Backbone:
């Protein structure tokens, strides 16, 4: 019995940190090698525009002779072929417009992914998501754990638990650049390596919200209307034991009616999660034909539009948001405009949230029904009765501004230069 207890203790110790010590030692050897191999080869993996979090950091690194930087296009392998092709087209347009070179992926002609280990031989790898087997095997993080993997969260993380902080990726990456001290605290409590690879630099998209001029991306309208973003999540059914966040199935018809009835008062941008259309294709009550027609309807109605790319300009030129997205629960607050979170079971949802997540949701008006949505639009958006405004301003000041009075990209560069001992 004592031997069994000792075995459990040793197993616990192994699983909660010791097995990652070898990785840390390997990282230390790579860092020592850096001083001999300047400039440092860096790869940014670009999966889709909506999850591109490295614009400012790329600009700083690209201008720094200590780094040799490449962007590699690589759509998620969970997408169907047509969506992957579409994502590649959007990525190419985004980078071409900004004169940013990239390593392409000629999926349209069934070309193999570029062997970046052979062609670029990167030391630093920046990934858009912390999930394994998400990209083609030649590009996936599982093929590069022998390099220095870095990560900005693709969302302003609000969930707690192992799913958020304790995947293999979280423990095997060299640097996790997190948003706030509360996220560091969660990692120290949850991750097997106790968050030793975490550095707090601020939220990756903060630089784009705080250091940019914003384009008006809304469809021209003849009347003075209020602009609302509707951003439904993709999780229309429960999977993997996760809370089905999306309320799309019961909201879909009502939101079309809302736009039609208020054509002279509202302009609504439909901003679905990139994976929603794939989930609708597979849903027994929807399918491809119905889903495509629904998306086209939002694109064609006179006071609505379909948004499938970036969202920062959209957010910052809007008047409000209605959503059930975990990342937007924080990110939209950079606009300092009112937000409604739609959920029919907030108690269950909040049980999954970290301390930071609960603070973020407290800044929202909550919608459980079509009437709640209608009241939010009439009272808060149209009439301007916004009792949560002062609390949102404090949240913005306390948690959304990057530490040190510097931009997030500069905080990151400073850590890279110090950690790699670059001159």
Residues:
């Amino acid at each position: 019995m004592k031997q069994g207890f000792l075995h459990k203790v040793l197993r616990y110790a192994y699983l909660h940190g010791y097995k990652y010590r070898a990785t840390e030692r390997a990282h230390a050897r790579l860092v020592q090698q850096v001083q001999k191999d300047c400039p440092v080869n860096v790869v940014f993996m670009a999966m889709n525009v909506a999850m591109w979090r490295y614009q400012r950091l790329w600009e700083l690194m690209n201008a720094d002779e200590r780094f040799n930087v490449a962007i590699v296009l690589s759509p998620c392998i969970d997408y169907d072929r047509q969506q992957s092709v579409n994502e590649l087209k959007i990525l190419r347009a985004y980078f071409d417009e900004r004169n940013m070179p990239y390593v392409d992926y000629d999926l349209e002609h069934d070309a193999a992914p570029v062997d970046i280990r052979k062609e670029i031989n990167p030391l630093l790898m920046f990934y858009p998501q912390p999930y394994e087997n998400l990209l083609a095997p030649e590009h996936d993080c599982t093929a590069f754990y022998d390099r220095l993997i870095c990560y900005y969260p693709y969302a302003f993380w609000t969930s707690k638990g192992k799913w958020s902080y304790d995947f293999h990726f979280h423990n095997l990456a060299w640097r996790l650049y997190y948003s706030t001290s509360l996220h560091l605290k969660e990692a120290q409590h949850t991750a097997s390596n106790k968050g030793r690879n975490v550095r707090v630099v601020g939220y990756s998209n903060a630089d784009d919200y705080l250091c940019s001029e914003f384009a008006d991306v809304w469809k021209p309208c003849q009347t003075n209307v209020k602009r609302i973003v509707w951003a439904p999540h993709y999780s229309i059914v429960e999977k993997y034991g996760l809370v089905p966040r999306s309320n799309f199935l019961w909201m879909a018809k009502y939101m079309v009616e809302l736009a039609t009835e208020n054509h002279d008062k509202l302009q609504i941008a439909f901003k679905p999660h990139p994976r929603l259309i794939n989930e609708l294709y597979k849903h027994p009550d929807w399918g491809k034909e119905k889903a495509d027609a629904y998306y086209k309807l939002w694109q064609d109605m006179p006071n609505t539009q379909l948004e499938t790319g970036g969202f920062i300009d959209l957010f910052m030129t809007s008047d409000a948001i209605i959503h059930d997205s975990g990342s937007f629960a924080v990110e939209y607050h950079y606009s300092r405009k009112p937000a409604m979170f739609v959920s029919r079971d907030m108690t269950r949802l909040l049980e999954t949230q970290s301390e930071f997540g609960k603070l973020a949701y407290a800044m929202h008006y909550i919608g459980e029904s079509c009437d709640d949505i209608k009241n939010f639009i009439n009272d808060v958006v149209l009439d301007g009765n916004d009792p949560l405004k002062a609390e949102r301003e404090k949240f913005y000041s306390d948690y959304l501004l990057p530490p040190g009075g510097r931009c997030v990209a500069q905080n990151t560069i400073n850590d890279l230069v110090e950690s790699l001992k670059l001159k």
In short: The chain has a mean pLDDT of 90. The chain is about 40% helix and 15% strand. The first strand starts at residue 40 and ends at 46.
